[in-house]
Amino acid sequence: NAPRHRIDNILSIGELQACCKLLGAIPVPSADIPFLMPDGRTLFVLTPQGIQWWDITNPGRPTRADSSALPLANSTGSVVGTNSVMAAAAHDPDFASCDCRDLRLFGVSAGHVTASATVSDSTGDQLAISNDGRLLAAAGPGDNGLTLWTIGTPRHPVLDVSLATVPALIGINIGDDDERLVDWNDSYLQLWDIMNPADPELLASVSFSPKPDTQFSSNIGGAIFAASGSELAVALDSTLLLVDTDPEGYSFILLPGVFRW
């Protein structure tokens, strides 16, 4: 039987309109996972054998440009990328007994791999990358602790620091200004100043475990920085908190009405 495919369309998305213009299409098997790089020039597809890289500079004529061997890439734990750098935490079948993944780094330009490196063979699922593509954060084995890497030269990543964090991380995020990092598990959140990646400062460690005198509940669903980099939105079950991360003081403000669901 012929393999089942889905079509992943490359769309030109400008101002919100009633419909979008179809620019091109790439056939992708249903088991594979496509991703679009932020610069809009590269699309990559995670397959059981590795990564297919596509040049979509001309979306009407996408071109298969390169490939990278990475077994079981389509079962990767996490993928993050900027305009020219992509990182993937990929399952390594040789380490079945280890709750860890291979951390691979790729420098990419218009679908062509310009550099690659294995950053670590003992990383967790959670990754984050700075907007400028300079810094990579990766959870440790079992998603406990995290490491910061300078990746300005993707072929030669440099370890900046290893940090002790709350256990069993379920998320990491870096602010748009590349000066703050947040990590969290189900009930605890940590906020870090990473202006000096070799010596991060823990700014706040907050518990969201249920308490009789608070309206906040546990189960952190996610955390993301505003574009300014100074405000952080934290999703808690049916509540969204806005956190002011100004260094003069941290305040957790419940936004009334609008952000309850």
Give structural attributes.
261 residues; mainly beta; four-stranded antiparallel sheet; globular
| Sheet with most strands: strand arrangement | 3-4-5-6
N/C terminus separation:
46 Å
Determine Rg (CA atoms, Å): 20 Å
Low-confidence stretches: 1-7, 255-261
Helix-residue proportion: under 10%
Structural class: mainly beta
Order of helix and strand elements from N to C terminus: EEEEEEEEEEEEEEEEEEEEEE
Number of strands: 22
Average pLDDT: 82
What percent strand? Answer: over 45%
What is the molecular shape?
Answer: globular
Largest sheet descriptor? 4 strands, antiparallel
Number of helices, where a helix is a run of at least 4 consecutive DSSP H or I residues: 0
Structural notes for this entry:
- By secondary structure, the protein is mainly beta.
- The protein has strands at residues 5-12, 21-29, 33-36, 42-46, 50-55, 63-69, 78-81, 85-90, 101-109, 112-123, 127-129, 135-139, 146-150, 158-163, 171-174, 180-184, 188-193, 201-207, 220-225, 231-236, 239-244, 251-254.
- A four-stranded antiparallel sheet has the order 3-4-5-6, with no helix packed on it. Strands 7-8-9-10 form a four-stranded antiparallel sheet, with no helix packed on it. The chain has a four-stranded antiparallel sheet with strand order 11-12-13-14, with no helix packed on it.
- Strand 4 and strand 5 form a beta hairpin.
- The termini are far apart.
- Residues 1-7 and 255-261 have low confidence and may be disordered.
